[in-house]
Model the fold of this input.
Amino acid sequence: MARSPYPGATAEDFRRLRRIIAEDQDWSLTLVPCLSNLCLQTIVRNFEEKPIFEELSPIHKNFVHERLSTSLPLHKTANLISDGVYWKRCCEQRWDICDLNQYGHSWKRMFLERHLEDIIEFFIPDVTELKTILEMVPLCKNDVKRLNISQLLPPIKDPQKEEQEEDFNSELTSDNEDSGQSMDHFEFDILLNKLPKLEEFHLVYRVKQCGMNFERKMFEMSKRDCESLAKALKSCKTLKLLKLHQSQIEDKKCRLLVKSLLDHPSLRELDFSHNLIGDRGARAIGKLLTRSKLETLNMCDNDIRGPGAKAIAHALSKNSTLLSLNLRLNCLGDEGGQAISKALLNNNTLLHLHLGANRVTGPTAIALSKVLLQNNTLKSINLSCNSLGVDGGEALREAMSINTSVTECDIRLTEVDEQTVSFINQVVWTNHSSEQKRQAEKSETKLTSCSF
Done:
C-alpha cells in the first residue's frame, strides 16, 4: 500500500487540494451561459424554420430582437416581430439616412414603407411580376401610412419592334396627330385600395437616372396611367394628402383626377404644383373646393389665367374649410387677382394666400387692400415678384395701418417704394409680436385651468 505524501491529511483536506485544469485557458464559471439563453439562441438559429416569438416574455423578446438575422424573409418577420430593435437594425443596415420623425417614430413602419416604395420605383411593366407587389400587401398593410414614390419606370423597349411600330404609325398618323407612343407605368389601382391605413401619397412620374436614354415621355403620365390613378384614388378612402407634381399634368388629366376626388371623405391637402394645368383644369379645381373638405391647395407653377382664377375665386367665396391657397407662378393677371381678392370679402377661413409672380399690378393690390380693411382672418399674404407700383403700395400701406391680423406680408420685388415697404414690415412685426403674446397668455390660462 502506497504511503500518502501528506501524512495525517483527511479526505476533506484532499478535496481542498484537488485542482481541475480546463482545456480552454479562458474558461471561467462566469462564462457558462444559463439554460434560458441557450434556448433563446436555439430559437434565433432556427427562427426561419420554426418562428417562436409571441410566447416569449418581454426580456426574452429583446434578446431575440438583438440577434435575429436581418436577412430573414419578410413573410417570416413582418407579421410576427413587433416594432423595436430588430427593425432598427434592418433600417440602419439598408439605408444610410434614417429619419424616424417622418415615420411616427416607428422603425418597423419605416422599413416596410421604404421597402414597398423601392419595389414600386423599380417596377418594370411586363418584366416585374405583379405578385412581387401583391405578396407584400398582407405583410405591410397595417403599417403603411405614407408612400413617397420619386420615380416610375416605363416598359423596356424592343428596338426592332419599336422601329416597326414607328414605321406603321408614321403611315397612319396625320400631320396634326402625335405619333409618339404613350408610356405606361405601374398601375396603382391594384394597390391603394388594399392599404387601409394609407394617409399620404406623394407621386411624380419621372425617371431619376435616365442618362443618355432621355425621352420627354419619361417625365409624364400617359392617359392609361391617369385612368388607373384616378380609379385608385377614388378607392382610397383614408387618403388625407395627395401630392402629384412635376408630371406634365394638363387640363384633361386634371379633370379626370379631380372627378375621382369629388366628395372624398378624408382628403385635406392637394398639391398639383409644377404641372401644365390651365383654365379648364382650374374650373375642375373650383368644383372640388365646393365638394370637398380641402384645407390646403397648392397649384404653384401651372398655367392658370384669369378665367381659371375666377372659377377658383367663385368657389372660394362659398368655401368654409380652405386654410391655405398657393397660386404662385401662374398667369392670373389683374383679372384673376381681383377676383381672388373680392372672394375674400365673403370668406372668413383662409389664413394663407400666395399670389407671387402672377403678373398682377396695382388694381389687384387695391382690391386686396379693401379686404385687409375688414378681413381679420388672413395671417399671411405673398405678392412678391409682381409690379404693384406706387399706387398699389400706397393702398396696401393704408389698409395695413389699421390691420391687426396679418403677421406675414411679402412684397419684395414689387416696385413699391422703400418707405412703404418699411412701414408695412413694421406693422407686420407689431402684429406678429401681439399674436405671440396672445398665444402665450392663452397657453398660460389653459395651464392654470388644468391645474385646478
User: Anything to note?
Assistant: The longest strand covers residues 146-149. The CA atoms of residues 176 and 296 lie 39 Å apart. Residues 418-451 form the longest helix (34 residues).
